[in-house]
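Model it.
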Amino acid sequence: MKKFIAGALALTMIAGMACMPTSAEVYDEITTDVMTTDGEQFNAAPKSVEEFLKSGTDLYDATIYDGTGKTGFNTNGRTYYTGVVLKGGSASATFNTKGVKKISFYIAHLDNSSYSDNKLNVYFDGELSNTSYQLQRNMPFTRIDLNVTDYDQVKFALPAYSSGTYAIVDMVVDGLKTKKGHDTPTYKSTDDLFNKMYNTNSLKFYDSTKKIGCMVNGRTYYRGVVMQGGGAFTLNTENISSISFDLGALDNSGYDSNQLTVYYDNEETKHEIKCDFNSPIKRYTLDLKNVDNLRIVGKSYINCDLVLGDIQFNNVKTTKTFTKPTYNDAVDFMKSNYNTSDIEIYDGSKKLGFDMQGTNYKQGIIMNDGSNMTFNVENIGGMKFKLGHVDDTSYASNPIVKVYFDNVLHDEFKLDKNSKPIDVSYDLTGVKNIYFLYNCTYTGQRNALANISISKNAPKATVMKGDANQDKQINVTDIAVIATHIKGIKALTGNGLTAADVNGDKQINVGDIAMIASHIKGIKALK
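Modeled.
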């Protein structure tokens, strides 16, 4: 087309050189954007990106924003006022490129639109180019440069029968930039942060409008995000340097293992944050200084909802964080159980209790085969109870009740129907959660914790350095116990943990073992 026009111009100049108009007379009087030659018209180079965008024709499911409107559109958390939005299959827009040499722009997914990947096709003078551009729903801004020197028109289109809405932004036409760029979000509070999350899926927000919170490991969190199976969100972090949150499983939401995958600018981090239904609450801090967009995704089809609680960013803190449970008495404590399956609570009000070895107990908890229960013990110093087999119930060959402190195995009991109930006493200083699991299933056997009592403070005890097994002696058995702790086989807790840290550096390692060995050999006594 351009070659045809050039030939026509040459013939006109040869035929009537003497009558050639001045440069001021070349442009039509009605519009300075149109040049006239022997009745044929063509557009001159645009004077602005906005003018170029206004030349758009043959629009199908496409919206052009020329910067004059008060409202814009959101892409990757930013608000744009100038650009082109292509909505789904067959969406297209054609632009006049006469007088234009180069077009550059960025493209990305339109926030909260159809959650699908797509492809951008580019046509030059009606012919599909050899290059197409893959579009992803969580893609960062992707730059595209087009040389249109030899073409009169360029067309942008999404394939037929596709979905996913994408936006062309920050367009530059022969060095000309848009007059009105974009707004990058800032956040005044966690509520504001929640409101500006985008591309969300299966989320429930707990913000300042909620009067009640959500339960995580027995705590009540008042500010946070509950991520149900496959839950996900994206957040623009251009104005956020770091974000912190407590992570735990929502109480009573299931018994699966779950995990979060963290993406920085759509690039997956090297590690995934795992969280089981009884995992202790942990606090995480993400460094976002060089990150424009943060995306966090939970596993799909999982029966275990995860909670990001007490979210803080930059210097903005949550106004109302969480509360730890307190208990009026043992009965109140028993009723606070969570992540529970197939238990029976006896609160002392029933005339008929349950028997263990002929003794009747009115207060306690019966665990049926395969049952489990968890309690928050952050405000409890100690716990006592009798553990035994409930009379007149069936008996399995290897029934075991396991006890976990903060999801680490602490104790296990093999219960014989003929043995007497066992007196159990636990120092729960520093322990956040205690979990009971009865691993015998389909036998009909029942076991019970009877005469449960709790105390706010654990009995004061003198801790002997090196006495890891708390038998009032320091010998090779203590070394073996500490080695088991270091290897992660069986964790030390309470006074045993304190005694194992013989050098007082807040860590349990081979240095402590060496000092105990030196004490045992009589080389250097522990103090």
